[in-house]
Specification:
The chain is an alpha/beta fold. The protein folds into two domains: 4-106 and 232-324, 2-enoyl-CoA Hydratase, Chain A, domain 1 (Alpha-Beta Complex), CATH 3.90.226; 125-228, no CATH class. The protein has helices spanning 4-13, 29-39, 58-71, 86-92, 128-155, 159-173, 175-179, 183-207, 212-224, 235-241, 253-258, 260-265, 285-290, 297-301; strands at residues 17-22, 44-52, 72-79, 82-83, 96-99, 104-105, 111-117, 120-125, 245-247, 269-274. The chain starts with a helix and ends in a 31-residue tail after the last helix.
């Protein structure tokens, strides 16, 4: 992939930055190990975390933020486009959240891998079975109340008799739907959400100045308060919850936009530390878009990167670190 846009954004922000970029792969513990390698022996007064991810393991996200906190006094979570699920957990552990013009975070509904066939499967939001159960409970209670009123009004039965017949009606109608829910699956997904809740509260308790009651309310909203994994939590929503949130300044917007083609090339994951280049060697956005010398990684694009950096797999710095892992992580 072309590293020049990553260097250009780092230069525009004038701060060292760790890029934590994911294609279709989830956040898991392998990229966290790569992050450990990138930060080993380094410390920063202020560090940008440039993150792009659809989510993954809450355990891995918590580990990643804890690791960043060990190496930086201040952490800025910078989201050019989106950081969903476990990536949102990373963001709330930062001192400040910086968003692109249409960037979005999402609910803390960690993604759980379900194997459909041997070696093949897909990820589901841990909220799915709980939302199904919630809807069925609401449907059952509504059906019970309606049936009881109908029986009492039309047949003149007592409240006890009306309730008994209404319960029998609900058992036949919605009871079969509830019976289809897998209690083991509901329990397992519920535990995953409890893990996300605990990590969220732990991060905010450690790094925010909020009182415990506010922390509990905000985390509960992030975990359970939205209808789907795709729900957009934007700048205004984050601000209303009390997070320190801002946008990339106007003079950095071009560098943010130029990052998109490189992100779209990510297959597995990219974990790479960049540092601002000297002014004389900075990679400009115009050089990238016009194809001038210095716009490719082989040209001037690596100026300011962590010297001699390689991933723990021996993959050259900036390459698809996560691509070495072919099997999807099961621990979400």
């Amino acid at each position: 992939m072309d590293l020049a846009p990553l260097q250009a954004l780092t230069d525009a922000r004038k701060k060292p930055a760790v890029y934590f970029l994911f294609g279709e792969e989830p956040i898991d513990r392998v990229p966290v190990l790569a992050l450990h390698d990138e930060l080993a022996g380094r410390s920063f007064d202020e560090l940008d975390l440039i993150i792009h991810s659809a989510g993954g393991s809450a355990d891995a996200a918590y580990q990643a933020m804890t690791l960043l906190r060990l190496h930086a006094g201040t952490v800025n979570a910078c989201v050019p486009f989106w950081a969903k699920g476990a990536a949102t957990l990373l963001c709330i552990g930062a001192d400040r959240i910086i968003l692109g013009e249409h960037a979005e975070l999402g609910p803390l509904d960690v993604q759980v891998y379900e194997e459909k066939q041997e070696g093949r499967g897909e990820y589901h939001s841990a909220l799915d079975p709980l939302k199904e159960l919630e809807q069925l409970e609401s449907l059952s209670l509504g059906a019970l109340a309606s049936a009881m009123r109908f029986i009492a009004t039309n047949y003149g039965l007592s409240s006890d008799e009306s309730l008994r017949h209404a319960m029998a009606f609900v058992e036949v109608t919605t009871g079969s739907l509830i019976a289809r829910l897998d209690p083991e699956r509901v329990g397992r997904y519920g535990r995953e959400l409890a893990v996300a809740t605990e990590y969220g509260e732990r991060l905010l308790s450690t790094w925010s100045k909020w009182p415990p009651k506010k922390i509990s309310e905000v985390v509960d909203q992030l975990v359970y308060g939205y209808p789907s994994h795709e729900y957009i939590i934007d700048h205004d929503e984050l601000s209303s919850m009390g997070f320190d949130v801002g946008r990339f300044p106007e003079e950095q917007q071009a560098a943010v936009s130029a990052l998109l083609p490189s992100i779209e090339e990510v297959d597995g994951s990219v974990v790479q530390l960049f540092e601002p280049a000297p002014v004389s060697s900075m990679v400009t956005v115009s050089a990238i878009t016009e194809g001038r010398p210095g716009s490719s990684a082989e040209g001037g694009g690596q100026v300011g990167m962590s010297p001699g950096a390689e991933s723990r797999f021996g993959v050259p710095a900036g390459e698809h670190v996560g691509a070495a892992v072919n099997e999807p992580a099961r621990e979400h």
